[in-house]
Amino acid sequence: MSYFCTRNQLVKWMKKFVSDLVVSSNVKLNDQYFLIKVKLQFDLPTILPGQFVELKVEDSPSTFLRRPISINFVDRDKNEIWLLIQIVGEGTRKLSLLSEGSLLNMIYPLGNTFTVPNSKDSELLLVGGGVGIAPLLFWGSELASKGFKCNFLLGGKSETNLLLLDEFNRYGNVYCTTEDGSAGEKGFVTHHSILGSQRFDAIYSCGPTPMMKAVAAYAKSKDIFCEVSLENTMACGFGACLCCVTDTTDGNVCVCTEGPVFNITKLKWQI
Asked: What is the pLDDT of residue 259?
């Protein structure tokens, strides 16, 4: 099967925006996660699945740098961008307190995108864990709009960590695993029975690095095309701070400018 990646050659030339967006809603999903929807005052520019934004955290003396957040979904009918955010520190905690009508300063869209398969008959698997499910919803929605059949494999520690399942169900088949067995099959995503019962032509993954490495190892063992979206710390989004450098077959590159999406054959992972 052949693939093309012309969009990844174009994203570096896409116009970037810095603007204040209006928070149209901020919904607490559980103790760790919340979903912010922001509305633009002008028509949405071109935004591609896999890309991310850099958010400015206001009124937080201990937060000097912007926070990189994956684009969860783009609702063009409502002119909204969705951001799924996990509270991991003071910056994200401050963002979780934003109220409807607040302004959120954002640099967008940043980074590259996933590769679209050539064949509509491709069996596709999108694997996510934790906040790493975020870019997969947007990606799945685009694939479905192009006529592809999507399968989502989502993992969490428990049932409360499985988020936005109703949304994922709109775009394909959803399979789940939980570490405690409270929903779906018990274990990690790579333990799910679908991996032994169905053949896939391409796998896309985002989540904790150990999970992505396990998914990549599975894909490599089956000779399956695989892309992963890395979650390195990206403080600037433009390759200036060098916080997000990762080692690839092309040398050390900035994840924020050369990624965050990489083909696993480009990464020097021990898989």
From this structure: 94
217 in any annotated domain: yes
| Same domain for 182 and 77 | no
Helix runs in the chain, H state only: 6-10, 90-95, 134-145, 165-169, 194-197, 209-221, 255-258
Residues 204, 153 contacting (CB under 8 angstroms) = no
Overall number of domains in the chain: 2
* pLDDT at res. 270: 75
Q: How many residues does the chain have?
A: 271
Q: Are strands 123-129 and 225-229 parallel, antiparallel or unpaired?
A: unpaired
Q: Domain limits at 75?
A: 4-110
Question: What is the CATH number for 44?
Answer: 2.40.30.10
Residue 15: Cβ-neighbour burial (10 angstroms; 0-12, 13-18, 19+)? exposed
Where among 82, 110, 138 does a domain terminate?
Answer: 110
Q: Are residues 164 and 219 in the same domain?
A: yes
User: Which residues in the chain land under pLDDT 70?
Assistant: 1-10, 12, 271
Two structure tokens written together for 69: 């957040």
CA-CA-CA-CA torsion sign (198, 139, 208, 152): negative
Single out the residue of 138, 141, 152, 144 nearest to residue 120, CA to CA: 144
User: Whole-model pTM?
Assistant: 0.94
* Residue in the block written with tokens 């993992």: 155
